[in-house]
Write a structure and sequence with these properties.
18 helices; Rossmann fold; about 45% helix; binds flavin-adenine dinucleotide; Serine Threonine Protein Phosphatase 5, Tetratricopeptide repeat; mainly alpha; about 5% strand
Length: about 425
């Protein structure tokens, strides 16, 4: 039995059911395929920080695998082409993976299932619960968060699985080390990829600083590591398992204190859970301009406005600062994301999908369900009973950055610019333009 484990958003050894499933194999080929997002909504490729965080995560995973006599093969190319090729080259008899929740990923799986003649075993390792834990069938999953939460929050989160003590050896092959990213961490938020850094942050947030105790009051801070847990990059890349984090919260509540704030961190993990499972059910609707509700939305695409929003050069200083923070560090707070998204959708009348694509490129915690689901929520085309959220940008700035420190830190104050520019080719030409000619 020659197995292949296809790592995707499960870049860890512990609590990884798919990886544990290879115990009886004679050999195991561990593979990761670098994501190459297709051009979409004027956006292409991975942003520098997302690329950096991913490479750091892979380098650490490779070291951990090497410590078990294993290795990690990192390749470029689409799974539809590369995996069948590896199956043929190494005589693979079974592939396993942890399911990713996007509709493109589902299409890829369907294609591979058709094309390959060997078992493709799909595990689900990146969520708190499995569909069989829910008191409803997946197709009947509530369309609104509150009823979902009420039905699932009392369910038992299974104990995370220990890492394997040993793994089958790799087949004879060339394993290159992962080329480091040419981009360095930003000093304002130098979050390193990899499990160890994620564990350190978890330890710091819960046990050392005990910031979890007043998380509900501080979670809207605009800077990372300041008020919210900032665990999302390690969660999204799978360096940390969500069940592991949930159990750390429960342990803390048993040992130290259980209050509204400790509960609230778990509550936010339930939001993540909601968007994950909704993404499975909603499929391609997650990417339509009319969203999951199919609401027609007039959104004239104005390239200059979009480019200014991306560059942090709008007439809204706080939004500028947030966008510059995103591109420089790869992270933005939840409140920041809501403000920046509201600006593009409701002030600049932009197509929400262009904003979501730009976030996808840059966020080191990019997660398809959470990103597209939250964007739809703000655009009023998602699972929101209130039908959209428009934030008053002046009020938000006064509340969350009253002294303008954050805005100044990220150079958000810019000279206002006209909404439209005229150039020599503008029409019609007036008598005055013609002068004496
Ligand atoms: C427009 C927009 C786009 C977003 N895109 C993403 C994305 O690509 N990836 C992503 O992980 N989150 C996304 N979020 C959700 C949220 O902003 C981030 O999870 C959060 O800011 C991460 O910081 P944190 O780890 O400090 O969060 P905390 O406040 O400490 O929350 C703990 C964890 O709960 C989860 N969580 C918190 N809020 C949400 C939420 N609203 N939706 C889903 N999960 C949540 C995250 O896994 C987070 O790490 C988006 C929100 C908006 C408004």
């Amino acid at each position: 039995m020659r197995h292949l484990h296809w790592f995707q958003q499960d870049l860890r050894l512990d609590d990884n059911p798919a990886l544990l499933s290879h115990a009886a194999a004679d050999s195991l080929l561990c593979v990761f395929l670098m994501p190459r997002p297709k051009p979409w909504c004027n956006t292409v490729g991975l942003g520098p920080q997302r690329d950096r965080f991913l490479r750091e995560s892979l380098t650490e995973l490779q070291r951990e695998l090497q410590a078990l006599g294993q290795n990690l093969m990192v390749l470029e190319g689409s799974p539809e082409l590369v995996l069948p090729d590896l199956v043929a080259r190494f005589g693979i008899t079974e592939i396993s993976l942890s399911r990713c929740h996007g509709s493109n990923e589902a299409k890829t799986l369907a294609f591979l299932e058709q094309k390959l003649t060997i078992p493709l075993v799909v595990h689900r390792g990146n969520t708190l619960f499995q569909p069989e834990d829910f008191p409803f069938g997946l197709a009947e999953i509530p369309g609104v968060f509150s009823p979902f939460r009420r039905q699932v929050e009392k369910l038992t989160v299974k104990t995370p699985l220990a890492p394997p003590e040993r793994l089958p050896p790799p087949p004879a092959a060339e394993f290159d080390s992962i080329p480091p990213s040419p981009h360095s961490r930003h000093p304002a938020l130098p979050l390193p990829g990899g499990k160890r850094a994620g564990e350190r942050r978890l330890q710091q947030f819960i046990d050392v600083d005990k910031s979890i105790v007043d998380y509900k009051e501080t979670r809207n801070c605009l800077d990372g590591l300041d008020g919210s847990s900032t665990l999302s990059p390690w969660l999204a890349n799978g360096n940390l398992s969500v069940r592991h984090i949930a159990h750390r919260i429960f342990d803390f509540e048993r040992r130290e204190i259980a209050n509204e704030s400790t509960y609230w961190l778990y509550f936010e993990l339930l939001w993540r859970e909601f968007f994950h499972w909704r993404a499975v059910v909603d499929g391609p609707k997650l990417f339509r301009i009319g969203g999951v509700v199919g609401k027609p939305r007039l959104s004239p695409f104005e390239p200059r406005q979009f480019a200014r929003w991306c560059a942090g050069d709008t007439d809204f200083p706080l939004v500028n600062a947030l966008m510059r923070q995103l591109v420089a560090t790869g992270w933005m707070s939840n409140r920041g994301r809501q403000i920046a998204a509201s600006c593009l959708i409701h002030e600049l009348q932009g197509d929400w999908r262009f904003g979501a694509a730009f976030f996808e490129k840059h966020l080191i915690d990019f997660d398809v369900g959470s990103n597209y689901g939250n964007w739809q929520y703000i655009a009023g085309v998602g699972h929101d009973p209130r039908g959209g959220r428009q934030f008053n940008l002046d009020k938000q700035a006064a509340q969350h950055d009253p002294d303008g420190l954050f805005t100044r830190k990220w150079d958000g104050y810019r000279a206002p610019q006209p909404a439209f520019v005229t150039d020599a080719a503008d029409w019609p030409i007036t008598e005055r333009d013609l002068g004496d000619a």
